[in-house]
Amino acid sequence: MIVSPKIRGFICTTAHPEGCAAHVQEQIDYVKSQPPLANAPKRVLVVGSSTGYGLASRIVPAFGGGAATIGVFFEKEPTDKKTASAGWYNSAAFEAAAAQAGLYAKSFNGDAFSNEVKQQVIAAIQADLGQVDMVVYSLASPRRVDPVTGEVYKSCLKPTGGTYTNKNLNTDKKEIEAVTIEPATAEEIAHTIKVMGGEDWQLWIDALSAASALAPGFKTVAYSYIGPAVTWPIYTDGTIGRAKLHLEETAAAMNAKFGPGTAVVSVNKALVTQASSAIPVVPLYISLLYKIMKAKGLHEGCIEQITRLFAQHYGAPGGPQLDEKGRIRIDDWEMREDVQAEITKVWDTVTTANIDELSDFAGYQQEFLRLFGFGLAGVDYEAETDPLRPIPSLG
Ligand code: NAD
Description:
Strand order of the largest sheet: 5-4-3-6-11-12-13
Number of strands: 13
Bound molecules: nicotinamide-adenine-dinucleotide
Helix content: 40-55%
CATH architecture: 3-Layer(aba) Sandwich
Largest sheet: 7 strands, parallel
Distance between the termini: 24 Å
Low-confidence stretches: none
Strand content: 15-25%
Radius of gyration: 20 Å
Number of domains: 1
């Protein structure tokens, strides 16, 4: 079939197999162009490993440090009539590249929140690797089935303090409009914490620990975001921010159990991913941010961010440098005073009429399409392609 993008709001329902493979290869090439990682973990489990920050967290230790990796994700399989989701093709391409480089890679496509997937992963670790040195927790999900009660929890992206109105970018129409979001109920806040907070991270670590699948001195990291004041009502002070606070509390609880520095929350930069494009207000902020950071030569994607996480934090002789709340801050360039001062300046003036001049919306759109394998150099998008691409380790 010939595969072209089919965009519905903030998702694209098709993905290009060769395009996704080219996207993964670009990231591998970037990592190989960097110095090899010092103190690299050799056996790494990544939960949420097929797209965005999690995919980068699989590529960096594998191709920068020669690590064996196990990846867990929840992706749509292809049929002969329908393409898979992008994360499926990314994982197929990752495994092919890992095999070529002689690196162990095993993948699990299933619900990471379930006990079954945890047990399957633990069995693979015990059989193939013995233990893991690092667990990266990079899930972004709109729902979670509680593994004990079977109850379904849904996360939402709402303010918690009161009604919030701000500028929003309608990415379909390329128009800036006002968006008003009513505050979450107490139940919606609790549900979002259940889905995106630290409970499942803790369940993973406890299950791995109970099975002696964690190496002495193991490390675990989960990702968070803070961003500028303009997005605080919807992010940091919103339902998702409450969940991220719970993630930090979970890290503290794990450190009390396993020793200081074992569990860390890394605050990452705002980037175009499938998860972030669903958050109101954020796509406009990202479009403005990209323009400013590119002009200053500070722009990074997931792969550059995660390379810095491993090279400059985990690779540093004294381990990661932490902020006053015990977090890693690879959002440091985004949060630089000069960058944020420019954001504040353009935020009030940006309108539909001057969006091309003041923002990098073109870059945003390009990056969004690339998530699904479209717009990659060297890929013939007019050519017939086979949607059926196996992920070898899934069998
Ligand atoms: P993403 O949508 O690109 O990736 C999500 C991953 O989770 C995918 O691999 C997906 O398959 C997997 N997943 C979802 N539900 C699952 C389930 N039930 N079982 C197994 N796997 C499942 O998201 P992302 O933007 O890379 O986000 C990853 C983390 O990084 C999140 O915690 C997010 O809050 C954080 N973060 C993102 C940004 C950003 O701007 N994108 C910034 C800072 C922090």
